[in-house]
Amino acid sequence: MTTPVAVLGSSGSIGTQTLEVVAASADQYRVSALGVDSSVDVVVDQAQVFRPDIVAVGDERAAVGLKDRLPAGTTLLVGADANADAIAGADIVVNGVVGFAGLGVTMATLGTNKRLCLANKESLIAAGPIVRRARKTSQAELIPVDSEHCAVHQCLNGTIDKAGAHFRIVLTASGGPFRGRSIAELESVGVEEALVHPNWSMGPKITVDSSTLMNKGLEIIEAHELFGIGYDSIDVVIHPQSIVHSMVTFSDGATLAQLSLPDMRMCIGYALSYPDRALRAWGAIDWSEVSRLDFGPPDTKAFRCLALAYAAGRAAKTAPAWLNAANEVAVEAFLSRRIHWVDIATVVDDALQRWPGTPACDIQTVLEADRRARSVTKELIDSRYQR
Predict the structure, then answer these.
(1) What whole-number distance in Å separates Cα of residue 94 and Cα of residue 98?
(2) E strands present in the chain
(3) I need a labelling partner for 38 at 20 to 30 A (CA). Which of 60, 62, 112, 228 fits?
């Protein structure tokens, strides 16, 4: 009997790679639902291959006329709650939705006894306190899909559930395309350079975040929320080969690391199969070709976003939501060539200085913090940083 899987955000990188993993294990899994925001042509093609029970589309205008293009027997759900509603017939939910739209999927799944394979950052960064409260009473099982947190989950292997367990998390970062460059050398870098990651193939926004180390900063906040560990016990090291995906150091001095080639399908397969191991190998290493593994401290003067993320995480409340929103606006301004790369951290820093200290009482409070942070950041860019 195959396990029904809802793949939400199916047109994105995580979604398409999840479908690859499912297709390679058709005797174990079947796609019960596909969900997108507006990529209807992509989801139609996917639906013809995987024949899901449900297709969910968030954008009502994009969904016009879509029903007639879907396979017979596939139900079409449309609207803001469509992706969250699409989990109904699944045992496993893969949340690869981008942005705040993914929060509804996370919260809906946490209200069930399903498995949540989580790749939606906003759920833990912007809405961490809300999700944390939901997890305390949830019967759902949350398995992280991001490579670093998936690695930590594997290294801990249940240790986190044992009373008195003490450990440190070491998140690895490739250093991005600008590793080793001085502040002076970073003054003139352009969009094209920032979009060339040495190891991973990702979308423009996350690739720029990798170049500034903001992506690692956001992962620090995620690690805090996922594993209930203090910020003083989360370290970052630069590891240019991207083979060690993260490590855990225990109270007795032992360090466990998870290693593989950079391949998100390994993480997805782990999340789907846990506590078993996937039968298909993704990212397996040929050790005859690995000559060295390097590690070093991050340059927090040249890459200030890392420190900003630590500060926002420690401030708690809605500060992480404010950080996330300000960074998204700043990165968009850089990609549209309205500000320089070096301005990204300065813009985010200035925006954080204007955070009003609002607590994260509920989802509406978090959404309002996100909205206000975006407005403030846009005003800052228009008044101070516009080229």
Answers:
(1) 12
(2) 3-8, 29-36, 54-57, 75-78, 92-95, 115-118, 141-144, 167-173, 234-238, 244-250, 255-259
(3) 112
Please state, rounded to an integer, the average pLDDT across all residues of the chain.
94
Distance of alpha carbon 102 from the chain centroid: 11
Residue labelled with tokens 């782990």: 270
Q: What angle do CA 100, 201, 151 make, to 5 degrees?
A: 70
DSSP string computed for 183-211:
HHHHTT--HHHHT--SS----HHHHHHHH
Q: What are phi and psi of 151, to 5 degrees?
A: -65, -45
- 375's CB contacts (< 8 A; 6+ apart) are none
pLDDT at site 165: 62
Is the distance from CB of 143 to CB of 117 less than 8 angstroms? yes
- pTM for the full predicted model: 0.93
Residue type, 25: S
Q: Tell me if 348 sits within 8 A of 309, measured CB to CB.
A: no
User: Which residue has tokens 């204007």?
Assistant: 354
User: Which amino acid would we find at residue 219?
Assistant: E
Whole-angstrom distance, CA of residue 278 vs CA of residue 315? 39
Residue pair 246/155 in contact (Cβ under 8 Å)? The answer is yes
Inter-axis angle of helices 128-137 and 101-110, nearest 10: 20
Residue 296 DSSP code: B
Q: What percent of the chain has pLDDT over 90?
A: 88
